[in-house]
Amino acid sequence: MPIKENDIPCAVETPFNWVAWPFRLPEIVMHPEPDYFTAPFSKERQELYLIDDENTFFSPSVRNRIVFYILTRCPYGTEEGKKKFGIKRLINNGTYSAAYPLHDCQYWRKANDPKCENERYTLYREWARFPRFFKEQPLDLIRKYYGERIGIYFAWLGFYTEMLFFAAVVGSICFLYGAFTMNENMSSREICEPSIGGEIIMCPLCDIKCDYWRLNSTCETSEYSHLFDNVATLFFAIFMGIWVTLFLEFWKRRQARLEYEWDLVDFEEEQQQLQLRPEYEAKCTQKRKNPVTQELELIKRKSLHEYGKLSLLYFGVLFWISLIIASMIAVIVYRLAVYAAFASIMENTQTLQPIRGLLTPQLATSVTASFLNFVIIMILNFLYERIAIWITDMEIPRTHFEYENRLTMKMFLFQFVNYYSSCFYVAFFKGKFVGYPGSYTYMFDRWRNEECDPAGCLIELTTQLTIIMAGKQIWGNIQEAFVPWIWNWWGRRKARNNPENLYGRWEQDHDLQNFGALGLFYEYLEMVIQFGFITLFVASFPLAPLLALMNNILEIRVDSWKLTTQFRRPVAAKAHSIGIWQEILNGMAILSVVTNAFIVAFTSDMIPRLVYYYAYSTESDSPMSGYINDSLSVFRISDFLEKNRPEENPGNFSTCRYRDYRYPPDHEKQYTHTMQFWHILAAKMAFIIIMEHVVFVVKFFVAWMIPDVPAEVKAKIKREKYLTQKILHEYELYKLKQKLCEGRTDASMEKVVMATEGKVELSELM
Predict the structure, then answer these.
(1) Rounded to an integer, what is the distance from CA 542 to the centroid of its chain?
(2) pLDDT of residue 757
């Protein structure tokens, strides 16, 4: 709480601050309170604090946090010798229907009480409406009304969105480069050329039912794949590896500023004991001495029965992750099983002939499988959320901090496998273990493994990523905005005709939705999953940051709108950082370098093209001419096994082509890999090692160069600690001298005075 106004001068405005003027909010909205030096509140030292009015000394968010702390620990009876306590238990057994802090006014109009600060109305007018999307966020007012925990979330989301702007600009430039150079791409030109692609007969893509097909039937697909599979892809992958480091390092600096400005520097140490969960305290039967504080604290010893129960719970988590992997395999089987059906339908249906060049059987299979996978993801996600919360409740973590960390790791591990498994399959497994005609590889000895398009698998990865990422964002915004609004509209239907004096503030808020203790957890989870999409697979889709940017601009206003208008006021909570999410983001940043290096090397066609350009090209005037013919091997149709041989061969073809580097049928090493295959594989591995090392060196150098805490913030923290210590010691000295003057003097009192004077001198020296 405040003890003295901050005397450190504010940063001097630069001459270019006028550029940001259109994005500014009024000063009273941005900074509703002056800045103070602060110290932990103590009733014994009340005259030390700047108390103008005892009724408003504690902010509403602090008051509701104190009240909630008391209510969750308030005893109300005993049952079978056990104490019963806490408002949560009374809500669960139906004694009360709800417990929540009240909003200060209606969001669309000010309160009649002239003393009301109308902060909810101000937040709605200046923050929660979409026309204000280009304005900065009033973080100090958010913190004052909702507490530091929600304030930190919106600060992080706003900073993440700002940084996405730079990634979106570079990604759009890379995409435009692909669009402008589409006609210069020699690979797609050769595929579309009737005298080249039209004369190349490709081997069937499935057994028996599929026909031979001409390479130029994939002309449009190969042209569009160049939008994402070009030289700019490599540049963008390296850029994003550095961007994610800059984002995380600059966020640490931004977070350090907020820690100082919001008095959270020593928060963790002060709050650990206060944050014990009531559920944990109820189970504690013993106490032990803390080796640091030397104070008795509650402990809970686990029995053998509890260890067995926890083992079963963890097996449950593994079971659900196994269920996701099984569902992914089911989608793969679907892809393998329906490909022949799509090929037959498109071949025999006349109405589909005009779009056959664009909608190939491969693309149709990929799109439908992506939609099916998205539906399965949503269903499994809905079910697992309940399971993860139940398992974490059964573990009975000691503090709220531990509870959230355990739940976060369970949910994130599940969501990681759930959302990214299909993208990992397309990126790193599809088309890699196909075999060759006459010796195909089969899944479960029944379904033949999928092949990539002659132009590569990157376009399919782009399709998969777009559908899952865009679908999740659209569905998430529907859930966040429309569902609460519909429930609130339905809940208020009985009260619409009641006058205001019969429909009080508590009843109006009761008809709103409950934000819940895990409301913010789901917001973080949604954004971190999106962060994975734009970092782990960004080499396949440079427009992913642009999609994320547009979604986040909407997300900030949707989250603020629903929090201000559709939900009860949540209980305020303190937080000095984004918690374990920081470690998760760091881990994903490191993993993204590896995944993007593998995507460029193995999923895109860049390395084979470069090897051909420098080692195998024979045309000096047009080095890439002949690449398509070079990348396709020859197979003799008479060598087909009966289970692979197509039913018809209307063109009486004697050979067909397939995507691989193998010797032709009349060679002494027929159908074994050529030396070019091993050259390309070596080049891919060398590229991965070089790219990873270059990006990691740059990342760690940038992280080392950028200090986590700005120098001026360090200086302010030191000065505040110095002044606070000095004020407190001088106050103690004053009180002791006052006691001496009142005549209560003895040798021990004089020693205390001397010791306090020494502390004052020591703090000045420090």
Answers:
(1) 18
(2) 58
Q: Are residues 167 and 45 in the same domain?
A: no
Tell me the mean pLDDT in the region 685-698.
Answer: 92
Tokens representing 411?
């949910």
Rounded mean pLDDT, 686-714: 89
How many angstroms from the chain centroid is the CA of residue 198? 46
Q: Are 64 and 150 in contact (CB under 8 A)?
A: no
pLDDT at 655 over 60: yes
413 and 510 together in one domain: yes
Task: List CB contacts of 142: < 8 A, sequence separation 6 or more.
Answer: 123, 127, 150, 151, 154
Q: SS3 sequence, 6-44?
A: CCCCCCCCCHHHHHHHHHCCCHHHHCCCCCEEECCCCHH
Domain identity same for 578 and 444: yes
∠ CA 334-335-338, rounded to 5°: 75
Three-state DSSP at 659 gives strand
Q: What is the pLDDT of residues 551-593, one digit of tens each?
A: 999 999 999 999 999 999 998 888 888 888 999 999 999 999 9
The confidence score (pLDDT) of residue 109 equals 84
Do 230 and 127 reside in the same domain of the chain? Answer: no
**Residue owning tokens 């940043």:** 589
**CA 361/CA 369 separation, integer angstroms:** 12
| Residue 364 sits in the same domain as residue 455 | yes
Residue in the structure block whose two tokens are 């270019």: 16
List, for residues 76-104, the tens digit of each pLDDT value: 887 776 778 888 888 888 899 999 999 98
Domain membership of residue 199 as a residue range: 141-261+277-286+311-350+360-612+682-709
* pTM score of the predicted model: 0.85
